Amino acid sequence: MNALQQHYDQYTAEDRHVWQLLFERQLQALPGRAAPEFMEGLARIGFTADRIPDFRQTNQVLRRLTGWELVAVPGIVDDAVFFGLLAARKFPATTWLRKLSELDYLEEPDMFHDVFGHVPLLTNLSFCRFLHQLGHIGTLHASDAGAAELLARLYWFTVEFGLIRDAGSGAARIYGAGILSSAGETRYSLGPEPTRQPFDIAQVLDTAFRKDVFQTTYFVLDSFEQLLPTLPAVQRQLRQAACLTESAD
Ligand SMILES: C[C@H](O)[C@H](O)[C@H]1CNc2nc(N)[nH]c(=O)c2N1
Ligand SMILES: N[C@@H](Cc1ccccc1)C(=O)O
Ligand SMILES: [Fe+2]
């Protein structure tokens, strides 16, 4: 796919202000709430409040650490493209930033979500192995609607809105980028309102989700090593879903 470019010199003073505000606010909220692996990744990547990340620099670090890189895209791309990129160890990221008026919550991913939310965990080998294999499976099944919905749920309840138990305290910590990029959901996700249940792949595949509100259910991993081994069972269910869709035609 002909990748977009990040026009670094076109960022405005408002863009820089938005990045700084969101960054500083999350750096207040995340310590003690974000998974240690996220905080470690953030430190290794070296993002700061006073500089909008330059994909060229970020990619040099990512390639060295895990072989992954960011590819600039205009916005949501279709599943076949999305999974194809993950299968090539390329993560699609927007280059535009939300407006000051949208600071608290955005229904679609902007660069703060894609880069601040997703990039730090792209330094974690175990997480990257899962994402890469999910991309490979997605390219095999994305054309089938039933299978695509199951894949979207798995992606949603892990990469976007996943929680993980802190090894020491046993408390839930955040690793899902959709939470990490949203100040409101950061606090809400660990608070009393939502349901937090142990990660169970059958449950995840059976749980529908809404994109326009804070989640009402989160799934909590014990460790990132739990993710990759679930994929053979996912593939079996995707094949059944595909057969069902075919027979429905
Ligand atoms: C996996 C699932 O299809 C999910 O909605 C994908 C679709 N396309 C995407 N496209 C972009 N750019 N970013 C994303 O996070 C997604 N998510
Ligand atoms: N809700 C996230 C953006 C997002 C939208 C859709 C999916 C995932 C993330 C934010 O406010 O930053
Ligand atoms: Fe995302």
UniProtKB/TrEMBL annotation:
Gene3D superfamilies named in the record: Aromatic amino acid hydroxylase
Gene behind the chain: phhA
Enzyme Commission number(s): 1.14.16.1
Molecular function per GO: iron ion binding; phenylalanine 4-monooxygenase activity
PROSITE patterns with a match to the protein in the record: BH4_AAA_HYDROXYL_1, BH4_AAA_HYDROXYL_2
Name of the protein in question: Phenylalanine-4-hydroxylase
EC class: oxidoreductase
Substrates-to-products reaction catalysed: (6R)-L-erythro-5,6,7,8-tetrahydrobiopterin + L-phenylalanine + O2 = (4aS,6R)-4a-hydroxy-L-erythro-5,6,7,8-tetrahydrobiopterin + L-tyrosine
Keywords attached to this entry: Iron, Metal-binding, Monooxygenase, Oxidoreductase, Phenylalanine catabolism
Pathway recorded for this protein: Amino-acid degradation; L-phenylalanine degradation; acetoacetate and fumarate from L-phenylalanine: step 1/6
Source organism per UniProt: Hymenobacter busanensis
Annotated signal sequence range: none
InterPro entries: ArAA_hydroxylase, ArAA_hydroxylase_Fe/CU_BS, ArAA_hydroxylase_sf, Aro-AA_hydroxylase_C_sf, Aromatic-AA_hydroxylase_C, Phe-4-hydroxylase_mono
Binding site for Fe cation: 113, 118, 160
Pfam families registered for this protein in UniProt: Biopterin_H
SUPFAM superfamilies reported in the protein's UniProt record: Aromatic aminoacid monoxygenases, catalytic and oligomerization domains
Cofactor: Fe(2+)
GO terms under biological process: L-phenylalanine catabolic process
